[in-house]
Amino acid sequence: xxxxxxxxxxxxxxxxxxxxxxxxxxxxxxxxxxxxxxxxxxxxxxxxxxx
Length: 51
Known about the structure:
It is a single chain. By secondary structure, the protein is an all-alpha fold. It has helices at 3-28, 33-50. α1 packs antiparallel against α2 (33-50). The longest helix is centred in the N-terminal third of the chain and has 26 residues, at 3-28. Residues 1-22 form the signal peptide. Keywords: Membrane, Signal, Transmembrane, Transmembrane helix.
């Protein structure tokens, strides 16, 4: 795999993990706005880098 694509996929996975963390935080009643925003930005950046 190309280095640029693997870096993008790594960002995709990291962003998805942040989004999952935000979902769990919202479910248990904690604040999940910051992880959701960061996760969305990282996920989007990873998508555009990988593809």
